[in-house]
Amino acid sequence: MKLAADTTSTIIPCLRYRNAHVAIEWLCDAFGFERHAVYAEGDVVHHAQLTFGNGMIMLGSAEAGGEWGEQIVQPADIGLRQTQSPCVIVGDTDAHYARAKAAGATIVQDIADQGYGGRGYSCRDLEGHLWWFGSYDPWKAQ
């Protein structure tokens, strides 16, 4: 029995933002995401899909509530601690790092070659979510 769907990306991180409209703009400008779909009413983004290559994140407004939203807290509410973070494979780590830094991303771990292969860095976005960007591709033999 095959459990995974036959689709482009079977795992899609979901995030919530207090100002989702601003976050969408910032994620596109700073990290290079592209809008795939945005469903909103006024200031509330009920659901948005942003793509990066063949990957995707989904996001919505923290204020949207609902059963799903009630399970999620914002990083600022818990001392910027995280229990998970998106890891994004980029083609040019140094160029991506420069773009994110210029857009105001808070660098947590400076860009460096990694002992397991590849080059990467971690940062926080405009609302404190932790991200990892790097060239290490776990799908390719190192």
**SSE ordering:** EHEEEHEHEEE
Sheet with most strands: 4 strands, mixed
Number of strands: 8
What number is the mean pLDDT?
93
- The CATH class label is Alpha Beta
Distance between the termini: 30 Å
Shape: globular
Q: Count of helices?
A: 3
What level of helicity do the residues show? 10-25%
**Strands in their spatial order, largest beta sheet:** 1-4-3-2
Topology:
Layout: E1 14-17, H1 20-31, E2 34-41, E3 44-52, E4 55-61, H2 66-69, E5 87-89, H3 93-102, E6 106-113, E7 119-124, E8 130-134
Parallel strand pairs: 1-4, 5-8
Antiparallel strand pairs: 2-3, 3-4, 6-7, 7-8
In words, what does this structure look like?
- The chain is of the alpha/beta class and 142 residues long.
- The protein has a single domain (14-134), classed as Roll (2,3-Dihydroxybiphenyl 1,2-Dioxygenase, domain 1), CATH 3.10.180.10.
- Helix content is 18%, strand content 35%.
- The strands form two sheets. A four-stranded mixed β-sheet has the order 1-4-3-2.
- The longest helix has 12 residues, at 20-31.
- The two termini are 30 Å apart.
- The mean pLDDT is 93.
